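Changelog-adjacent note: as of this version, every example in the card shows the full chain rather than a window. The one below runs 526 residues end to end.
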Amino acid sequence: MGAIERSIEKLLYPGIDGVAVEGFTADDCLVVVRAFSRTPLRSCSACGVPSKRIHSRYERRVSDRPVAGRSTVILLTVRRFFCDNTGCVRRTFVEQIAGISERYRQASTGLRQLLHAIATELGGRPGSRLCRKMGVSAGRMRLLQLLHAPPVAQRAPRILGVDEFAFRRGRTYGTILVDVEKRCPVDVLPDRTSETLASWLVAHPGVEIVCRDRASAYTRAIKEAAPHAVEVADRWHLLRNLSQAVEKTCQQHRACLRKYAEQAPSPIPRMPLLEALPPTLIVQRVQQRHELINRMLDNGYPLSEVARRVGLDRKTARRYRDTELDVLIASARDRRNVPLDRYKPFIQAQFASGVTSAKDLYDQIRGQAFQGGYSTLSRYVLSLRNGVAVAAPAQIPSPRSITAWIMRPRESLSTSEVAHLDEVRIACPDITEACNLARAFTDLVRHRRGTMLGLWIREAEQSTIGPLRSFGSFLRQDFDAVTAGLTLPYSSGVVEGHVCRVKLLKRSMYGRATFALLRARILARP
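Full-length structure tokens:
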């Protein structure tokens, strides 16, 4: 063997003993390597007894990893040996070179590892497109057939993270289990029921701490199958539930903010316009739905049947049942997408000063970043000329903006945001109380002061704010898990990251993945 063959052997097969390269040929698209085994002894694949008696030789064609963008084929000369063990079921056996050839395989070990990595990261069709560019012949089905879920350990990890993900959002869901310490998925369950999770925990004992969200099904499963495990409620979900309660409070007190804004002195004089808002289509629809839903509920229809007949989601029907009509109408009016509202005080002032041309007014507000069309402004100017224009609504921040100011640390707010929040607190005492309670709870979360949770819950339950009272009662029902979440350093952040990875895998499969294939890709190690 020459120096060139030895260099190729070291380059292509480093660390592989027992193979010798005797030559190669190469053209524009294919590299052919001729190799043979030089180990005198081989062990029988059935009994393991070594043998050196050669029965015959033949040549195998093994595909290998590409070289410089060219497909590579190994013409490997292998030997068939006699088995000298008289008690063995095999009379002869064929040698296999570890790291290159495998029984019944036409691809080398290195090529299979490369294709497995491509299939794990990209899936079928994207992986096959990459293989074509690399000079490897591999279709999508060949790549997908390489994916097999690794065996699950007999014992559960010490710290287990549990969360749900959607196979089809709103219809079917699964459960992902993650080792929080190793930050890797452990198993995937086909649904999110308590029975399935309880069966898994019984079959895989050893869990000591379980990080979960607020799902009651997982709580029942943990208490049934692993009663000694410490449950840890996720801090992000706690803050999210709190922000929803605060936003609902801000939504219920929009009238206070609007009344305060209308009483505040305006730098622009207002014209004497109509103060009553005419009924719009969306307001009429809200009134009709509220009347219909409550009438059906009074007649004894269950909420699910009412939602089905009206054509709404069950949560929306519950909102119509539990919310007063005035709040629903105010929310409907707040959803109007009227880009002209913020410019109406300026337009009224200009119109009163003598600028009555719609074209001139349009040019002026376009200079102030108005994004609407000319027809929107011309209709409003016509209503001003006819004296039937509606007064411009008072500019008040949205409930979501107020919630964001409350939930964020005060030092992270800008000067204008601090000023707006102070005006909101002056305008509504209930929002002020909600702000104080919310910031006290976020302080418990950020500094992990779980020992003070009971005191905060008592203050929330004694509050006059309904959403925060409900939030406090909800925390009391899950008191131990919430206390652990505000005390221990563990959370479900790692689990949420893997849920995002599951979403990415689903998109790469275009929704065609079966549960077995999706589970294999989730659990496959890169």
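Structural remarks: The longest strand covers residues 54-67.
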